[in-house]
User: Which sequence fits this backbone?
């Protein structure tokens, strides 16, 4: 009874339902897109009615929101933050910059494709995305969570070597603790 | 009817009631805050969903033994305070494990949890936690003074240190203590503003300033423990206020109405106030609340 497939399905369903309706966001304000987060959270668009709420520290957060371009310097901090977060965790790439570099496509100082360094679950495109787009991104994430398909963290664990290789290409002086889940 | 099993059953039932009611109240306060800010706000059961999610998260954090014990201390202290506060005043159900002198015991046990949490937060080594702890303890020095003064005034006035006796006095004389010792009530309510840590007194867990202070290294199940202990403790405190000043309650509905009215004082005061700095907060508690506490003691001695 405890370990059979059907009861596990029920548990998963309930857990995913709870995860879907309670998304605590760590908004890492890296780029200019961060300015769209306050209107999303405050009275005009009120993301809290969907259960989306700001988290204070990586330990408490479920979603890491990368708002825009990532300079090579911030990448290290972002990786550290991501690895401090507790499972289950998701990453949302926010703005064109995280998808293909956006208008910084030829910059020497920013990374271009976020997915090479961190496993992104949902992208929100636009430069910068309006709060409606942000909310639709959250809705997409909720959908994925409910179906159990938002498994970026699992991807990260499975392909840790590949991600590390890419990360170390950008960060030459790699002084970081080991990722220990 | 006085058997230990009956008492244990009452304990379990009052814990469940406290948890449910506390969580619902906190959810309602989020909703009310949202309405004041002209938002729609989360549903009132949002806190239960959050709790479920937190409970299902992994917690692969280890900073030392004390860090794991911190939230447990909080929970223990909340449950212990709940155990000695009689929930209803008809004496049979929910009277819990009260005894003579429990008011003094309560004063000790209410600070036990935060102290345990302070040790736990200290071991995480996070500077934000350390600052949060120092702020919390300084604020406690602030609001404990009017709070103790209010309770001492009650003890002097009615020559008892038992909560049940105070409740019986109110039932027999027919007047609530809020009318017969008003200054004590004012001092206690002002102290309660600090106890609940809503703004302007949310200097301990200020999310943007301190990254939530003492709990900044605690996620998942630890946060779940803290959240549920906070709800249980909130219910215990509200019930204590109702017991002491509003004549207790003879049934659950009455208790819910009375506690909700009391609960609205810190919540509504909070939603329209920005955050104080630490020294402003302490100065606040050593000002008018302490003055009313002194007045209450003088009133109790001379009348
Ligand atoms: S996508 Fe546009 S708005 Fe967003 S960070 Fe890049 S340049 Fe700025």
Assistant:
């Amino acid at each position: 009874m405890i370990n059979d497939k059907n009861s596990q399905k029920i548990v998963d369903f309930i857990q995913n339902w709870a995860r879907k309706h309670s998304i605590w966001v760590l908004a890492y304000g890296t780029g200019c897109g961060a300015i769209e987060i306050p209107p999303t959270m405050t009275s005009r668009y009120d993301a809290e009615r969907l259960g989306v709420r700001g988290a204070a520290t990586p330990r408490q957060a479920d979603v890491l929101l990368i708002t825009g371009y990532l300079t090579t310097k911030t990448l290290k901090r972002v990786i550290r933050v991501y690895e401090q977060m507790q499972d289950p965790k998701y990453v949302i790439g926010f703005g064109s910059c995280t998808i293909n570099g956006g208008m910084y496509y030829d910059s020497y100082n920013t990374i271009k494709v976020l997915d090479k360094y961190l496993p992104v679950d949902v992208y929100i495109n636009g430069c910068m995305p309006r709060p409606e787009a942000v909310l639709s991104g959250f809705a997409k994430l909720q959908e994925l969570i409910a179906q159990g398909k938002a498994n970026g963290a699992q991807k990260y664990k499975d392909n840790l070597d590949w991600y590390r290789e890419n990360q170390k290409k950008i960060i030459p002086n790699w002084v970081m603790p080991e990722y220990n889940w | 009817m006085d058997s230990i099993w009956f008492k244990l059953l009452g304990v379990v039932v009052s814990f469940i009631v406290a948890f449910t009611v506390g969580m619902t109240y906190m959810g309602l306060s989020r909703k009310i805050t949202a309405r004041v800010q002209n938002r729609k706000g989360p549903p009132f059961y949002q806190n239960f969903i959050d709790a479920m999610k937190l409970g299902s998260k992994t917690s692969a954090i280890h900073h030392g033994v004390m860090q794991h014990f911190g939230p447990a201390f909080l929970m223990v202290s909340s449950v212990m305070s709940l155990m000695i506060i009689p929930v209803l005043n008809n004496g049979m159900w929910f009277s819990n494990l009260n005894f003579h002198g429990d008011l003094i015991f309560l004063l000790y046990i209410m600070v036990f949890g935060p102290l345990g949490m302070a040790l736990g937060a200290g071991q995480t080594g996070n500077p934000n936690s350390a600052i949060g702890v120092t702020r919390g303890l300084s604020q406690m020095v602030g609001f404990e003074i009017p709070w103790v003064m209010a309770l001492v005034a009650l003890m002097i006035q009615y020559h008892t240190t038992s909560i049940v006796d105070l409740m019986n006095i109110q039932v027999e004389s027919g007047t609530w203590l809020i009318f017969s010792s008003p200054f004590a009530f004012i001092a206690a309510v002002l102290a309660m503003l600090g106890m609940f840590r809503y703004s302007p007194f949310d200097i301990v867990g200020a999310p943007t300033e301190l990254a939530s202070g003492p709990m900044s290294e605690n996620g998942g199940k630890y946060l779940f423990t803290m959240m549920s202990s906070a709800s249980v403790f909130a219910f215990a405190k509200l019930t204590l206020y109702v017991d002491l000043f509003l004549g207790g309650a003879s049934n659950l509905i009455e208790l819910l109405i009375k506690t909700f009215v009391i609960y609205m004082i810190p919540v509504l005061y909070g939603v329209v106030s920005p955050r104080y700095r630490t020294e402003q907060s302490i100065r606040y508690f050593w000002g008018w609340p302490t003055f009313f506490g002194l007045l209450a003691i003088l009133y109790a001695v001379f009348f």
About this structure: Chain A has seven helices and five strands. Chain A has one domain: 17-170. Strands of chain A lie at 23-28, 52-54, 63-67, 90-94, 122-124. Residues A 31-33, 68-69, 95-97, 102-103, 127-128 surround iron/sulfur cluster (CB under 6 Å).
